[in-house]
Amino acid sequence: MPHFEVSPGVMLAYTVDDFTDPWAPAPTVLLLHGLAESGEAFRAFVPALARQARVVRLDLRGYGGSTPMPADHPWRFDRLVADVVALIGHLGVARVYLVGGKIGGTIALAVAARHPALVEKLAVLGGPASLTNMAGRTPGWRAQIAAEGVRAWVAASNAGRMGTRMSAAALEWWTQMMGRTAASTLEGFLQMVPGVDVTAEVGAIRAPTLVVTTTGSGLGSVEEVRAWQERIAGSRLVVVDNDSYHVAASDPDASAALVKDFLFG
Predict the structure, then answer these.
(1) Closest C-alpha among 23, 22, 20 to residue 53
(2) Side-chain half-sphere of 135: how many Cα atoms within 13 Å?
């Protein structure tokens, strides 16, 4: 897994999957995962995208193969945005197709709004423009992680995250993958989350944009999502019938097909 140093002592890891024709130019698709995940969250998307693009799956700061963050790390949403911009520069490409799930989608919205020259197209999968409604959840989550560990917290919260239709085997895989996140990373990250709100910025997005949500998302109703999505000129909203709020996980094949058609169709 490649790494690069984004700031002193902080390494970011990423995975590259590229099955394009080596003699032909190909775009880069950059995938940004959500809370307590890694680039593995998008493994089901690789077969759908990697024949037509170089697919890069970032492990966000503190997650996956990237450097775990200490509990007192001064998390700033702007730093996460800057990390993505730094990775694009490290990859040596002028523009990317940017795809994000959950808070990865929120980060993607901010990158597209603040750095329009870097984003060719944008897809947001279950990613809210505002996470201020998480203020009531995160203190209890932090307390449970401190008392019982990350895996116990993931197991207790995943039903709402993934919805009622996910198989037991799939739910267990997600629990194990997410449960490997360092508790110290989550302690600081969860304190930052309720302060994240890019609603006022989305009108600056100029890239063609796809927004995907579900009928029963716990991160915002369809009407709430549409309210900010419609501020992005020319954007398209697709609503998937499910009670999850992590549509890329609960409906991976449908989500990947929507993204593939949007990016390359």
Answers:
(1) 20
(2) 7
